[in-house]
Amino acid sequence: MNPQWIIFLSITAVLTITPGADTALVTRNTIARGRLAAFFTTLGICLGCLTHATLSALGLAAVLNRSEVWFNTVKLAGAIYLIYIGATSLWSAIRHRQHQAELAQPPPEITGQRLRSFTEGLFTNLLNPKVMLFYFTFLPQFIAPGEPLLKKSLLLALIHVAMGLVWLTVFASLLHTMRGIFSRSAIRRRLEAVTGGLLIAFGLKLAFAKR
Question: How many domains is the chain built from?
Fold first, then answer.
């Protein structure tokens, strides 16, 4: 295998499994809504990444990188969105009081929950300019002169997205197998509070992030 591919796959794998806002969101939705909701969250996350990769390959990331106003606008919108989701989770943990029998099974997976989970995953990434700038700065390092920029960028991005899809799906499935533990009211509320706090922390980190 080409050494460049080995380097790319190694770095991408490490970045994929490193916990971040995506992991916190998937954790929160697995606990609160079940495995299927987590899968739709992951689909939204992957579509957001793929959208950023496409825009970066088309050169729109360069505009975002040069415009302080646009960068800060998108960044603050993303930060507010993450903080909102985290605050919602915290509020749910504070006021959530149900009988253990009701918590023994995950909430029913209805169309509205799937759409909401997908939307949360999608906008968590779309409203994060750091994701677009990551693709804009990282992927070109693995594109040799003369290679088709758009085609190669999308190929590399698809590999990254596929890794993320597999990893987050496996991660959510592992959490789901532990639903017997999460079904305990006190533990579930604590986990919702922790993931809510993490999402707020990631939102604040994004709000004060520099390019």
Answer: 1
Structural domain containing residue 154 = 3-7+21-207
Residue 12 included in any domain: no
Each residue of 25-46: pLDDT tens digit? 999 898 888 889 999 999 999 9
Residue type, 46: C
Q: Which two tokens stand for residue 162?
A: 């596929």
pLDDT tens, position by position, 56-114: 878 766 666 677 777 778 778 878 878 888 888 777 767 765 434 444 444 455 667 88
Closest CA to 202 of 21, 18, 16: 21
The pTM of the full predicted model, rounded to 2 decimals, is 0.76
Domain assignment present for residue 75? The answer is yes
Other CB atoms closer than 10 Å to residue 65's CB: what's the count?
Answer: 17
**Whole-angstrom Cα distance, residue 83 to residue 20?**
14
In a domain, 77, yes or no: yes
